[in-house]
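User: I'm writing a tutorial on reading structure tokens. Could you give me a worked example: one chain, its sequence, then its tokens, then a sentence or two explaining what the tokens reveal?
Assistant: Sure. Here is the example chain.
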Amino acid sequence: MRLLWSLVLAIPLLSLLLTTRDSAAMAPAPQTTVGVIGSTFATSHEGWQVVGDAQDGASIPDWHSTGGNLGGFIAAEDDVVGGTWYWQAPAHFLGNRLAAYDTDLTFDLRQSETDSQFDAADVLLIGNGITLEFDTTQNPGTTWTSYRVPLHEQGGWTVRATGIPPTASEMQSVLGNLSTLWIRGEFRDGSDTGSLDNVQLHGFHATTVIFLPFVLR
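And here are its predicted structure tokens:
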């Protein structure tokens, strides 16, 4: 009689364990991958524009299908009327880019001449009323020069209004509502041509849900 009652109690318990195990095995397993937003200029200028004294006052750069740092690239010619011209990123680089915090902005630059160089902010980020500036350690050469800019408050950025490094809160505030991304295209006093290729903003997370099959051992 004791054996019978033991079996009666054990069968529901075993069923519960198998159901619990089966449910756990079939639960979704999220996998997170890190991606980038980028422009390789393989088929067009991809919405990038020129801001400042270049292209005879037009905002559209010249697109070239070959000659880039693999494939296509964009270029603009200085008008030599004063000021410094920049590459302006299109809308898909902007908005809430907080996921890029503590990653990198990378790009390739080239200029036609390397004499008579001058200094200016090389990268500008604007968001939530804050303008951040970054100076690279060297200007590009007449062949493609690759840059990696850390998107972190200790990466070499300064706040334009104060000239001091941003706080973590300020850096994240800018990235969380990014309205402007400029990359300098002009480095020489006098006529020159600047070129841009392979712009990538890193650190965007895409989550894929995978259902794992139940295997009874």
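What the tokens reveal: The helical segments are 2-26, 168-176. The longest helix spans residues 2-26.
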